[in-house]
Design brief:
The complex is a heterodimer of chains A (about 290) and B (about 325). By secondary structure, chain A is mainly α. Chain A is built from 13 helices and two strands, in the order αββαααααααααααα. Chain A has a domain of about 190 residues: MetI-like (MetI-like fold), CATH 1.10.3720.10. In chain A, a hairpin with a 2-residue loop joins β1 and β2. In chain B, the strands form four sheets. Chain B has a six-stranded mixed beta sheet, with helices on both faces. A four-stranded antiparallel beta sheet of chain B has the order 2-1-4-5, covered by helices on one side. Classes of the chains: A mainly alpha (about 290), B alpha+beta (about 325). Chain B: GO terms for molecular function: ATP binding.
Chain lengths: ~290, ~325
């Protein structure tokens, strides 16, 4: 009896297990192994912490880490803020909400590569839209993507524009599940709109906010397509993000061992953040 | 001047008139019931009183004040919903305190009212639970406590017992009526359930297609229905309407008896309901020959064969007459 059940259990687990092992666990193991034994593209036979020691002395790595942190710190809350604001706006009973929803959602439907190309036309210093508009007011243009001080923020602006519409859809769906009776009850109790938002709408949206937060954070680390079009990590690594730096190391510099060490660091960061999100924040969310 | 008076209230939705020129008034401490089939405009009327919908025409006065265009929170009323409308993420305590906090009531006063309200509905030990941990009846008690704590002079209830099962509904009916009387609450109670209206209300306002069909005491609805609509709506099973050549004759099933002389009828089926047996017959002889599906209600259990004949009769005093053309009651015949 037990034996057959065990076999069945393994059989039922098999599809998921095979996929997870082949495409997640084995590559992770391989990465860790390579980061310890690897040496350039070669494999050594002696375990050494050399690749990790290099990390600590690599100023570009620290620059990249700082960029990634700043990128997440700004794009995640900003995307959430705009997503929620837009959702609240188009959830109302005003004319033309259908058109507004579509407009807000359009950036999501475009591939990141096309978005980057469109924004390249906005940002470019000679023919760009932004500088042209500034020119009308007699303000001299800024080299948005060429200046290390503005390049990263320019990328952030584009990312927020792209992401907020997508997250708006989740907020919109969540808003529509809140019973209108709750708002009626609150209104008869003389609650102001702000009070209703603070004590009812926002707390009831917390599960969505958590979901959106997790996704926005993951995206901030994994979505780097636009770097290939806009800046390639430049100028002087001002817009280089961790994943792009990993890509550069493994496929441009062919230093897979160092790239593996970087990947392990990225993995650790993501694991720690996931633990914080689901361990600490989830306990404070009402479902 | 009455406590709450509704004058010529109307509501149109895109040319369609949902509430059509309704007027009625309520005295302080009265329990009145807005009764009617679904779609008759009773909930719309209640929402207009609450300020959740804007009337197309007409006025609403509460006390001396014209509240027709005041926002809901400024009208001095509380509301209990069919869905309970409890805030799912807040505890029982916070649900009750919600309105008091929104109104910035003094902290001491808040706790005093909370304690009073929670004791009245008997939920002291559940005060820190979330609504999802409570049963339907308990949820509705919390909603009731929230309404009591607001100390609003007028309480509006929108089918508050319709989501509860029959047994609980009967208990809550008594409890609600008891609370209303002991606190002296003025209640406007919307329901489609005639038993709720008949057993709780001081006064019933029956709506049909956006108009007041009849208003008055529960007894008047049973004893002197003003139209065939009222006659068919109140009573269980509903009143039989028999068309004669001059009028429509109405007789309640419980007033029909099996006698030796009277109208000959054929039994179609009988329905044993415990205390009574409801028998469905077709009259096959006499002046009402051809009247089908006449129902009579006999006390106790009666074993009757389908298709067999019996003779039914009723006393003239129990008979109601309605005009054939308008369906209105004809008095004094």
């Amino acid at each position: 009896m037990f034996k057959t059940y065990k076999a069945q259990a393994w059989l039922l687990l098999a599809p998921a297990l095979i996929l997870l092992v082949a495409f997640t666990y084995l590559p992770i193991g391989n990465t860790i192994w390579r980061s310890v034994f690897g040496f350039g593209v070669q494999m050594g036979n002696q375990a050494s912490p050399e690749n990790y020691a290099r990390l600590l002395d690599d100023p570009v790595f620290w620059q990249v880490l700082k960029n990634s942190a700043l990128y997440a710190l700004i794009t995640v809350p900003a995307s959430i803020f705009f997503a929620l604001s837009m959702a609240l706006w188009v959830n109302g009973k005003i004319a033309g909400t259908g058109f507004m929803r579509l407009s807000f959602f359009t950036p999501t439907m475009l591939p990141m590569i096309s978005v980057a190309n469109i924004w390249l036309l906005f940002y470019s210093s000679e023919i760009g839209l932004f500088n042209a508009v500034l020119g009308w007011f007699g303000v001299s243009g800024v080299n948005w993507l060429g200046n290390p001080d503005t390049a990263l923020y320019s990328l952030m602006t584009m990312t927020i524009w792209k992401e907020a519409g997508f997250f708006m859809i989740f907020y919109l769906a969540a808003l529509q599940t809140i019973s209108p009776d709750l708002y009626k009850a609150a209104k008869t109790e003389n609650a102001s709109s702000l009070y209703i938002f603070r004590r009812i709408t926002f707390p009831l949206l917390m599960p969505t906010t958590l979901f959106v937060f997790v996704n926005a954070l993951l995206n901030s680390f994994k979505l780097i397509d636009h770097l290939f079009i806009l800046t390639k990590g430049g100028p002087n690594n001002a817009t280089n993000l961790l994943l792009y730096y990993i890509y550069e190391n493994s496929f441009s510099f062919f230093d897979t061992a160092y790239a593996s060490a970087l990947t392990v660091i990225l993995l650790l960061i993501l694991i720690v953040m996931a633990l914080i999100q689901f361990g600490v924040i989830e306990r404070r969310v009402h479902y | 001047m009455s406590f709450l008076s509704i004058s010529n209230l109307s509501k149109d939705y895109a040319q369609h008139c949902v509430v059509n020129d309704i007027s009625f008034s309520i005295e302080q401490g009265e329990f009145i019931s807005l009764l009617g089939p679904s779609g008759c405009g009773k909930s719309t009327t209640l929402n207009m009183i609450a300020g959740l919908e804007v009337p197309s025409r007409g006025q609403i006065h509460l006390g001396q004040n014209d509240i027709t265009h005041l926002p809901p929170g400024k009208r001095g009323l509380s509301m209990v919903f069919q869905s309970y409308a409890l805030f799912p993420h807040l505890s029982v305590k916070e649900n009750i305190l919600f309105g008091l906090k929104a109104r910035r009531v003094d902290k001491q006063e808040q706790l005093k009212r909370l304690k009073h309200a929670i004791e009245l509905v008997g939920l002291e030990e559940h005060i820190n639970k979330k609504p999802s941990q409570l049963s339907g009846g308990q949820c509705q008690r919390v909603a009731l406590a929230r309404s009591i704590a607001s100390q609003a002079p007028l309480c509006l209830m929108d089918e508050p017992l319709s989501n509860l099962d029959t047994k609980l509904r009967n208990e809550m009916r008594n409890e609600l009526r008891h609370l209303q009387k002991s606190l002296g609450l003025t209640v406007v109670y919307v329901t489609h359930d005639q038993i709720e209206a008949m057993s709780m209300a001081d006064k019933i306002i029956l709506l049909n297609q956006g108009k007041v069909e009849q208003q008055g005491s529960p007894e008047s609805f049973y004893q002197t229905p003003e139209s065939t609509f009222v006659a068919r709506f109140i009573g269980h099973p509903p009143m039989n309407l028999i068309t004669s050549h001059e009028h429509i004759i109405g007789v309640r099933p419980e007033h029909i008896e099996v006698q030796n002389v009277g109208h000959k009828a054929k039994i179609k089926n009988s329905d044993y309901q415990g205390a009574a047996t409801v028998i469905n017959v077709d009259i096959i002889d006499g002046p009402f020959h051809g009247s089908k599906n006449i129902q009579l209600s006999l006390m106790g259990k009666h074993q009757l064969t389908e298709g067999s004949d019996l003779t039914i009769n009723w006393s003239e005093q129990e008979q109601h007459l309605f005009s054939k053309s308008t369906g209105k009651r004809i008095a004094g015949i």
